[in-house]
Amino acid sequence: MIGRTVALVGFKFMLISSDEYTEKYMEDNGDVFPEASFRAIISKIKAPSKDYPSLQAYAIDLLAKLDKNNDKSLDLKEFCDGLRDMKINITNQEQHALYRRFDINNDGKISMEEFYNTLARQF
Fold first, then answer.
1. pLDDT score recorded for residue 99
2. Which residues are bridge partners to 12 per DSSP?
3. Cα separation of 35 and 100, whole Å?
4. Is 80 exceeded by the pLDDT of residue 103?
């Protein structure tokens, strides 16, 4: 898992990335790798929605809270910091898995359209 440390022959290494094959394999086997399971991660994000009248109202509020600089897009830091500020604790691997799923066009930013469309498919 990304963010974890492994020891090999007395040396410690922190895993900072993985190849596409490994990431896809972990995502496809979420029962074995729950930190790569999009459904499991989304359930963490969805948990606070119980305090809202609808999932749509929650999604709109979530977008507003995450987009701190109001530029209608989220970079990885803004995305992760926003979730942390909302007390939604996710691991480095979960952050990476979420960002991969939300950044549909792979431009390094999550547009509000990408964010909302991804949430709408899951909610």
1. 85
2. 7
3. 13
4. yes
**Calpha distance 95→79 (Å, rounded):** 9
Which residue in 92, 63, 66 sits closest to 79, CA to CA? 66
Number of H helices, E strands in the chain: 6, 4
Look up the pTM and report it.
0.73
Cβ count near 98 (within 10 Å): 22
- pLDDT reported for residue 11: 94
Helix (H, G, I), strand (E, B) or coil at 5: strand
- State the residue for tokens 């604790």: 89
Domains and CATH numbers, the chain: 5-122 (1.10.238.10)
Q: Distance between CA atoms of 87 and 57, rounded to whole angstroms?
A: 18
